[in-house]
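Board notes (copied after class):
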Amino acid sequence: MTVRLPAAAAAEFIGTFLLCFVGILAIHFAPSRPEAAVGLLAVALAHGIALSVAVTAAMPTSGGHINPAVTIGFLVTGKIKPISALVYVVAQLAGATAAALAVYVLLGADEESAAVVAKGTPKFDPSVFTPGMVLLAEIIATGLLVFAVWGSAADPRARNVGGFAVGLTVVADILAIGPISGGAMNPARVFGPALVAGGLWDQHWVYWVGPLVGGGIMAIFYHLVLWPRDAQRKIDPDSMQVPPSQRP
């Protein structure tokens, strides 16, 4: 059964809202500084748990992308139609923006609440890390995330584990690169807070280029090297033969 695009967009909106709402507030309330050990673990777990729930809940309707980098990876490998991909990305960006706005209003809709939203946006310290270092960290981490998505959800041979494997990968990635780049791995995660809080655009390009490049490379690699196909019998699962959760 083909997924209804409006319903899929709604699922992507809500799932991305969940991830960003929890993520921003988790960073705000995390013990000590987010880059400290306890704070970093709390932030990583909050994002991982939220994404696990979001992906699992959205999977029957939209496939549970919850990330433009994931959607673009499916687009470049022919697993989602261009119009569907565009709608997905718009829904994800809208969900992230709505989450940032919700936090802003929830905490008082003033300068302090705007600062909370800004604090909850992945960013890096240019006095410690160069844009190139941050870019590489985001490329690697997003590639690993997309590998988990393809291997645990998109692949026809995958066992049904919901979003659990994807969430665990996000936890591990944030623990690894959180102190370097903030561990975004998701352009929507940066776009929404930047739009609401403002003044965060100077580093913005890194969090689009890194995830899209990393996610795209891994998607193409998985599709060309690991994707199940039988050349002799001319069997190559297309987008309508993969699990329903990943059909356009």
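Comment from the instructor: Residues 37-62 form the longest helix (26 residues). The chain is about 70% helix and 0% strand.
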